[in-house]
């Protein structure tokens, strides 16, 4: 095969398109997630942390200062399941509450670890578990599928992007 300028240009364009698609996967997946209903967002987070959690989340708790969120987590753990669900909905919907404001000041890694701990407690039924037979919406399935297609670093970035915006930052005005 003879190497020509046209071949080099085509090869570069294809490589660039592939890299560009990889680079766009994170913001595109994050945008899809943010368009989901609050309940679908919570369900996707739960599925990601439980189904993919063995590869996605071990880095989150180790990297975070979870002790900064322990009081908040224990407060949620002491609530009824109905109250716990409402708190999670408040966080995802960015409703202004004491817990949303407390969550809002946590670091991104601590927020990742916070949701990881909630997912672990959901599996153990300390926090409201997923309803038996729960069916994720079609849009939720698409987002979950998109997350599963990403590499480890991209998955963590999508998770970080989604949980960073939850809650209410009392310092932002």
UniProtKB/TrEMBL annotation:
Q: Which domain of life is it from?
A: Bacteria
Pfam families assigned to the protein according to its UniProt record, in alphabetical order = Carot_N
Q: Which keywords accompany this UniProt record? A: Antenna complex, Chromophore, Membrane, Phycobilisome, Thylakoid
Question: Has the keyword Thylakoid been applied to this entry?
Answer: yes
Gene3D superfamilies in the record, alphabetically?
Orange carotenoid-binding protein, N-terminal domain
Q: Which residues form the OCP N-terminal domain?
A: 23-173
The entry's family comment says: Belongs to the orange carotenoid-binding protein family.
Full protein name: Orange carotenoid protein N-terminal domain-containing protein
Q: Which organism is it from?
A: Floridaenema evergladense BLCC-F167
């Amino acid at each position: 095969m003879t190497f020509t300028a046209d071949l080099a240009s085509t090869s570069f364009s294809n490589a660039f398109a592939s890299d560009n698609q990889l680079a766009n996967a994170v913001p595109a997946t994050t945008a899809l997630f943010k368009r989901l209903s609050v309940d679908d967002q919570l369900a996707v987070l739960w599925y990601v942390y439980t189904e993919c959690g063995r590869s996605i989340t071990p880095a989150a708790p180790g990297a975070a200062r979870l002790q900064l969120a322990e009081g908040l987590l224990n407060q949620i753990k002491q609530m009824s399941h109905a109250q716990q669900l409402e708190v999670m909905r408040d966080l995802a919907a960015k409703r202004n509450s004491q817990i949303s404001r407390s969550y809002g000041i946590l670091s991104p890694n601590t927020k990742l670890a916070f949701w990881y701990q909630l997912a672990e407690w959901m599996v153990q039924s300390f926090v409201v578990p997923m309803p038996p037979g729960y069916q994720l919406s079609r849009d939720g399935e698409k987002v979950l599928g998109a997350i599963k297609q990403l590499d480890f670093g991209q998955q963590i970035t999508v998770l970080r992007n989604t949980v960073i915006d939850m809650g209410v930052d009392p310092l932002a005005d």
